[in-house]
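Figure 2 data, in text form.
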Amino acid sequence: MRGWLALIMLVLIPITGSACFEPESAPAQGTLADANRLNSGPAAAQTPRPELRGEASSETKRPNILFILTDDLDADSVKFMPRVSSLLVDQGISFSNYFISVPFCCPSRASILRGQYAHNTQIYDNRPPHGGFESFHSLGLENSTIATWLQSSGYRTVLIGKYLNRYPNSVSDTYVPPGWDEWYSRIRGNPYSGFRYTLSGRDGLTAYGSNPEDYSTDVSARKAVDFIQRAAEGGKPFFMYLATFTPHGSIGDGPAMPAPRHQNMFPTAKVPRFPSFNEADVSDKPRGIRSLLPLTGSQIAEIDMLYRKRLQSLQAIDEMVGVLVGALKGTGQLENTYIVFTSDNGFHLGHHRLPAGKQTPYEEDAHVPLIVRGPNVPSGRVVDHLAGNIDLAPTFAEWGGTTIPDFVDGRSLVTLLSNESSQEAQRQVFLLQKHNKGKLTPPFQAIRTRCHLYVEYVTGERELYDLCKDPHQVENIITTADPASIDRLSARLADLSGCASEECRRLENTPLLP
């Protein structure tokens, strides 16, 4: 406990609650001493730390990959994370057009693990029969993921935190999917609450209570630092999949839960009042949204409260990033490690009159941050090429020097990460999908370009937005746009909705104009 509190004092900077907060100066990254303190205390003293033994030193020439996957993080909220800004954004590349193919937890995570669109993974929901861990497991999709590809090529792999929704319901509490050398994931309790849960891991099952040091993001940080330190003693490169349970939303499992030390931050913060917030005129939206009355004062107050809790919960993630960068630097591994920071999907809070949630084709849900720092990645750049969650697995595979399976729909981003001006195989469109039913947003197929969003719902309703002129998607121009352009969008969408592998990439690359 004392070690963790000391770490907080070292890495935490004064932050005042404000809806317009911008860090004035970059905080210092965590030091190796900070990382060591994370592993101090009774549990660390009682548990031996086995080395991650590797083979010849040639293994160390391949880069480590540290993948940080947040839960429901919208793109706008990253500005409240000063360490992410100074240590990742300023030191690497940010993608301004990175999208989630299905803006929902389990389908997105399945696409991340396999590099496929949802119509090829067949994972459409967070629960059976068309989603959840049970479906991913029963379909045998775990037998070929980025973890198995990298492990078979000599990487030491570890998953820390959230895996797939409903894990491990259909198997034993100690089940570890193929491809993972170490595994620390929740099996009981509600980690979205931050406390009172049980992890399955290298040392068996461990129960965590309600003490401050049991907060789930902090526990993940300690395990990640321990792994980084042990990896430095071995010879193999590592792949770490570090998935937080925050900032999360209020669907099903309760609202975002910050660490106790952050619960009083941002006392006056409010959801940014963009034109889409509590949208004045929704007559051009799908029927479910048209049925919504304007948000009341009490509904807006509740949404603002959830927004503050989400910002508060991000602070532990931000501190974790600083500590991990410090641990990598202190062990001599930082310059040979790619750090990738993103989210499984975004989150809307009162936008278009919708209550808190996700699963829409709109910017708040489908457009999330992607930030990459690492060897040969230029500093402080923004790339506007279209990219998506199906691209992560092939990118990691290329970094690791392993074969990308033929079934993969996505593409490696390695060229873009080293050459901003690359014109190689530029993606023109990206497919967005939703297959499960919803009262306000029915199933849809959609195409996203740099400047346009075109949506077809199963109800027959359609939407088209010019995002260069209307970034908040307030004016649906489907009735005034050029019919020939709409026909081309619809035809491309029909082709993409059933594509696979190389065909997907070909269709994505083909210009929409004749």
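Caption note: The two ends are 64 Å apart (CA to CA).
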